[in-house]
Amino acid sequence: MPADGTNGSAAAPGAIPAVDPRLLVREEGFAGYLTEFKRKMRGGELGAVPVVCGLIIIWAIFEFTTGRFLAPDNLTNIAQYIVGPGLISVGIVFVLLLGEIDLSVGSVAGVTAAISAVLAIKQGVNEGLAVLLGLAAAAAIGALHGFFFAKIGVPAFVVTLAGMLGWQGLQLKVLGNTLSLNNLSDGVVYNLNNFYFEDIAFAYGLATVGVAGFALTSLRERSRRRAVDLPHRPLSEVVLRTAVLAVLLYTGAWVLNQSRGLPLGITVFVAVIVLAGFVLRRTNYGRQIFAVGGGIEAARRAGINVAWIRISVFTISGFLAGLGGLFIASQSGVADSTLGGGNTLPLVIAAAVIGGTSLFGGRGTPWSALLGILVIQSIITGLYMNGSSSQSMQYMITGAVLLGAVVLDSVSRRTQKTAGRA
Q1: 8-17, 59-68, 157-166, 362-371, range with the lowest pLDDT
Q2: What's phi and psi for 335, nearest 5 deg?
Q3: Helix ranges, 228-342 (H)
Q4: CA distance linking residue 168 with residue 161, whole number of Å
Q5: Is residue 240 part of a domain?
């Protein structure tokens, strides 16, 4: 071995030297972070940059062409429309992190809404209990898919494809001859999409909680790393990050308060994303999900119960599909035979991928679901406001955006391999 400690192999032509982020010289100030940002871009570590830039461009174009796209009422409507599909997409993110796919989520959403509606309306069960039973059924369906995949060895694609067909049939069976049930007036499902916290204190209060939580978490992490002499963020960076978040959250609160107030739906959606993000980033369970997505055999050798991780992830996917289905039923006003069908499945998968979750597993975040569904719904709403409400145009543009996201993901992975960081 050479005296310099290397193994003597030459780097590939054009390779970008790998830099351990922990060795980033934070004392250089923000110039050091700019250098690190450029290194990541050259190395293919794009993160959420493309989708955020794309969203800004989309909003700018539609605001210029309509003059009212960024109006508070329209942004509030968009916030409501994204909740149901967005919740389903969060479950898809978990599955994609394993490098797998769940084709049954649309049907699971539909059968959950059908079970809850039939129990509450036809059987006279308390609606709150009916909703809980519907969600329990959704989680059980997801666990069943995971069992066949993890224990029996049936490919996830086949299991969930069979589920997509089978649960759609069950949805029709549960609804019976009516095929459609209206939500109970002012009931639990009705209020999921139609309840607003009208007092401005709720929106600003939630924004304050978010900013304070982020600041305290950042300061605590900084203190812990500093105590053991590990690289840590300078206080100036923590303050800047908190200030940027505060601007975003308080602006969002102001916009919502200019319309009808804080919607219950978007509150639940963000809470689910925050919880899912905490689980994936801050718990052993979350790290095990990434490990299984990065390599099954390596995960097994590390002592991870791969079967359990797979079953639990599909259970989460089923539960969130059911929850999303209830919000879709609330938005449409009915639980019917078409709920979860049509373009629901491609849209929720597209949202996860467009938001930055890799189809190849091991890379993604629940925030991908929010960003991706926001892009898709912004395109749909903007086209409608411009007088192009035909689904053909919506499908073509969404398909093009999805293809672009997948191509970008593929190029990014190739670039990271060239840079020696894949």
Answers
A1: 8-17
A2: -105, 105
A3: 235-257, 264-282, 284-294, 296-301, 306-332
A4: 11
A5: no
Total number of domains constituting the chain: 1
Q: What is the pLDDT of residues 57-73, one digit of tens each?
A: 999 999 999 989 999 99
- State the pTM of this model: 0.87
Separation between Cα atoms, residue 233 and residue 98, nearest integer Å: 31
**242, 245, 249, 251 alpha-carbon torsion, rounded to 10°:** 110
Its domain, for residue 395, covers 48-198+260-405
Cα dihedral 379, 380, 384, 385 sign: negative
Q: Output the pLDDT for position 354.
A: 85
Over the stretch 145-159, which tens digit does the pLDDT of each residue have?
999 999 999 999 999
CATH number at residue 102: 1.10.3470
DSSP string, 243-262: HHHHHHHHHHHHHHHTTT-E
Has residue 223 been placed in a domain? no
> In 3D, which of 20, 19, 21, 33 has the Cα closest to residue 234?
33
